[in-house]
Design brief:
The protein is mainly beta. It is 6% helix and 57% strand. The chain is globular and about 65 Å long.
Length: 637
């Protein structure tokens, strides 16, 4: 079978091996992969009682997540020590391999993936520039959705704090030997925690599979509609007066969006050793928005139109070498985007082309060598208030990695992965007079050791991420000629992100399991005017602990605690404004299952902690929600 991967020994197959798709863009054993990969299963999600992807990711090791309003829509995911204002540009989020990141600085819309459509989430800790390219700097989060299965129907009703109401329904069936389908719908309305933050979401998703001899052909369609009022930031004085209020400047702000996604794909074995995988995706988004900023009140609505066509073909070859396999992956990522924003007065036609290859070779006993390379280019034909013309660039990156299993149950890995990110359209058009942004490039160096047995595991990873020309907004830089909003996007002097991650799992018995993760980040400027300073917005420590207790066949209890350390306000690279306080948040879930029924009650922020995830050097603060409750009842037909 072209996609099969053999494992060196039976004990390794039982203890160390987990098949993932993210680290090779096709199914591959973790034994051969020189990287730390976390897997969140459907059962993990169910146990937590999480209602959206943001809640699932919030307490994962190595991830620092900031959510402006606590809604999950405007959430930024940071990995490897990035500030929240650039995190969305340095962490790649994909859905079944399809990019969710945007051409501009807006964050990927995690609410566009209904929680009930998720089969699992794979998290690559560390850069993946060769396999995934642009923006895969700190890590990659691959959300893998469910495939159509046997006849099944389910309806789920939820209610909660802030007048939240939700209904989810899904139906799937196999209508013949070759044809199966899955259809799901999700509707949510809520007032949310802050004033002037009413939200209404509607999401419908469908997939049809057609079985081929040696493969599958599929088509997907999704439509997402979200209407949301935007409460804006507060000053510290306003937070102390009423942390749920919306300041008067933002009372008319809103964002209404409609997104349509069409996807056609094929997976087919060719000859004896080759597998073809390819997807063609069309994503169209229209946004009506009225959004003010600190010191800039916007009184008129504007539109943003976004049309993207993405083609991602790849060939995977698997060739026996003794009792192991050599894997070759060759592919391309081809993307055309038309972008038009009235709010920022930018029009851009962007063409991005990437070609890559990766080779995983077994050698000696229990060793695997990984080598890869990618060449990427971008062409922007841009028109804006501050820059007009062609902005083009290209880059080549490489990767080298080793995975070694010295004894049963232990794996050691090391890798060097080069990475890059091109400037976003609203970055390259807002620079200081005469300045041009260079493409950000870097090297990620990692060394890890992993120990696994059936009931417990432990992994330690040391990493160093060295970046050249890191792209970020500097509020002290000279603004573009004619602009009234201070600051500009710049290339930083070289920066280094050092860190250490220790995570583990212990299953005490069949009923009680414990997970824990500790992350240390030391992100600093190596030279220039900020030499020796900490990069703003990066917490020095993250600590996550969760406990899952299966009382009996019916009752299940879940408790998680997340500690976030101190960090400078985003944008305060002078390190003059003091640090934000650390905080610890507890969440809990109780679920009950009986035959076709499943009931759950999740409590977020169990101790009613008043804390702030997101704040910046403009002294703009976004209070996080206090204690809130989510009750769910689901029935399977």
């Amino acid at each position: 079978m072209a996609a099969s991967i053999s494992i060196p020994t039976q004990s390794l197959a039982e203890e160390l091996s987990t098949v993932v798709v993210s680290a090779a863009r096709t199914e591959q054993s973790t034994v051969t992969i020189p990287a730390a990969i976390n897997i969140i299963t459907e059962d993990d999600i169910k146990a937590s009682g999480a209602s959206n992807v943001t809640e699932v990711l919030r307490n994962q090791g190595g991830i620092y997540l900031t959510d402006l309003f606590g809604t999950g829509t405007h959430a930024s995911i940071a990995m490897r020590g990035f500030s929240s204002d650039v995190a969305a540009s340095n962490t790649l989020v994909v859905v079944d391999g399809r990019r969710l990141n945007n051409i501009d600085l807006s964050t990927p819309d995690l609410n566009s993936i209904a929680i009930k459509d998720i089969e699992r989430i794979e998290i690559i800790q560390g850069s993946a520039g060769t396999l995934y390219g642009d923006q895969a700097v700190g890590g990659v989060i691959n959300i893998i959705t469910k495939q159509p299965a046997a006849a099944r129907k389910e309806v789920e009703l939820s209610v909660g704090s802030y007048n939240r109401q939700r209904i989810t329904a899904k139906v799937e069936d196999k209508v013949s030997d070759k044809v199966s389908y899955r259809l799901s719908g999700d509707y949510l309305e809520t007032d949310n925690y802050r004033d002037n933050n009413q939200q209404e979401n509607f999401d419908v998703f469908g997939r049809v599979n057609y079985e081929l001899d040696g493969g599958v052909l599929f088509v997907e369609a999704q439509r997402v509609k979200e209407d949301m009022e935007l409460p804006g930031p507060l000053s510290l004085v306003e937070v102390e007066q009423n942390r749920r209020q919306s300041a008067i400047d933002y009372l008319a702000d809103y964002s209404d969006s409609e997104t349509e996604v069409m996807r056609l794909g094929v997976r087919h074995s060719m000859l004896d050793n080759w597998l073809l995988e390819a997807e063609l995706t069309s994503r169209d988004q229209e946004i009506d928005v009225q959004q003010s900023f600190t010191g800039w009140v916007v009184n008129t609505p504007s539109t943003l139109d976004y049309e993207q066509l993405e083609l991602t073909p790849r060939l995977i070859g698997v060739f026996p070498m003794g009792n192991q396999d050599m894997t070759i992956t060759v592919g391309a990522d081809l993307m055309n985007t038309d972008y038009s924003s009235e709010l920022t007065a930018i029009i851009d036609e962007q063409v991005m082309r990437s070609y890559y290859a990766q080779l995983v070779v077994p050698f000696m006993e229990q060793w695997h060598l990984t080598m890869g390379s990618r060449h990427a280019s971008v062409e922007n034909d841009v028109v804006s208030l501050y820059k007009t013309g062609d902005v083009d660039d290209s880059v080549t990156v490489n990767e080298f990695g080793l995975s070694y299993v010295p004894v049963d149950n232990i794996r050691v890995f090391a890798r060097l992965d080069e990475n890059f990110r091109f400037a976003k359209v609203d970055e390259l058009t807002y620079t200081s007079p005469g300045a041009e942004l260079d493409t950000q490039t870097g090297q990620s160096k990692e060394l890890g050791v992993e120990y696994k047995q059936s009931n417990h595991s432990l992994r330690a990873v040391l990493f160093r991420l060295e970046l050249k020309d890191e792209i970020a907004f500097d509020p002290t830089a000279t603004q573009p000629t004619g602009a009234f909003y201070p600051g500009a996007n710049v290339n930083f002097d070289p920066t280094t992100h050092d860190g250490f991650i220790l995570d583990g799992h212990y299953q005490f018995n069949q009923t009680l399991g414990l997970n824990a993760s500790f992350t240390y980040n030391d992100a600093v400027f190596d030279s220039g005017v900020f030499e020796g300073n900490s990069i703003s917005g990066v917490p020095d420590t993250l600590l996550m602990v969760s406990m899952n207790y299966q009382h009996n066949d019916n009752w299940r209890y879940y408790l998680e605690a997340a500690y976030t350390g101190e960090r400078y306000l985003s944008g305060d690279n002078d390190n003059l404004l003091g640090k934000q306080d650390s905080y610890t948040v507890l969440n809990a879930n109780i679920s009950y299952e009986l035959k076709a029924w499943r009931l759950s009650a999740r409590v977020n922020n169990l101790t009613d902690k008043e804390y702030i995830e997101s704040a910046n050097s403009w002294l703009a603060y976004y209070p996080s929600p206090e204690r809130n409750i989510w009750l769910t009842a689901a029935y399977r037909f």
